[in-house]
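Subject: Protein record for review, amino acid sequence with backbone structure tokens
Why sent: The fold of this protein is of interest and is recorded here as tokens.
Enclosed: The protein record, placed directly beneath this head.
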Amino acid sequence: MDGYELARQRAYENADPAEVLQAITAARARTLAIIRPLSDEQLGRTGHFEGHELTVKGLLHLLCSHDQQHLAGLHWLLS
């Protein structure tokens, strides 16, 4: 994914921060609704993401890390 292109397409520089936060919160709620019922076997299934083989659980770790990076950037901007 090209994050800069995605930001340009979504015109993030003009976005309302409250609306963005609401959209992120809703997206993560949908993700949680999908993954909560998964069994250990399902979490261990493998697939390909951006040229790498990883498990569903590994993909979830990437999502969490990605969110943490954004949070760290927001903390830095607020300081």
